[in-house]
């Protein structure tokens, strides 16, 4: 779509010795639109080729500064229309410049329409700026908002300007009760919705931020991970089923690299390099945050790469024959039963295991762990250290009971 435009300032009408009104004309895709700038000047004082007043008088300088501001505002209006992602005309550009579109938009901009426009843009950027999972979460958040509107307001959509604090807190309550969402899940959906309101606010479709007094705080959740004993049980378990054995190996690979499912799935030959120490490293970008992460390949992980190097589904672009996320997580739960691991195993638990049991518990500095995990903030990694502290406390409590049972000390 051709969105380039041209503009000129020109005089219209006026007698020879009288003042002539100054007009702005915009041309877009061969179509024109014009408007008066409510300024006048004599033809003798006007430079038609430059579209400016002649001379260096104070009056001429003031007018020329105004015309420069008009140009700047026109370009801002053009950018605003481009960001909407819809086709527009020269007249639309002039109307936006004049502010004629604001009142109409305030009345017509509907909440779910804005949400859908946002989601459409996200969908087009999957694989570039967004992960597929992010797009799916926004789709789900929009569906939840739509269902809440239908239940609470008995309509299919509402104007975005009707969103207030009552709507937001009501939506959060709806998620926790009607949708049975856990606290953190509900807060995340409301936060997804908050982005849509920020878009409306930045486009001046609403005058005030309804989220100003909303406080949504995530609860700290203890992240499960495999202990050293459980990890050893997983590694040593012989599984005859070929598919389950494959998933066990892929899960184990993540336990010793800290890579997420998406990162293991896209792991390619070019991301395995020789590091500064002369050994093999994985150097890649986190799918979620796009931050760089560098991980030395431990022997267990290297053995798995070697095991599947001749697999028919492996190539330069795909080093491991990983299945879909849904099937992988389903098989992982079967593997947990086979290994006698009484935990709700998911693929992401492997990343937690790498952070705790494999690295921090073995003395790897938290700064190094943070870099390998691709965390933007060290505080994210510190949560794993807190988990280990809690486990140390639990282990010492068990030790205390054992020592007391053996009468290792006497009461004074």
From TrEMBL:
Residues 221-404 form the Tyr recombinase domain. It holds the Pfam family Phage_integrase. One of its GO terms (biological process) is DNA integration. Keywords: DNA recombination, DNA-binding. GO terms for molecular function: DNA binding. The keyword DNA-binding applies. It comes from the Bacteria. Belongs to the 'phage' integrase family. This is Recombinase. It comes from Salegentibacter mishustinae.
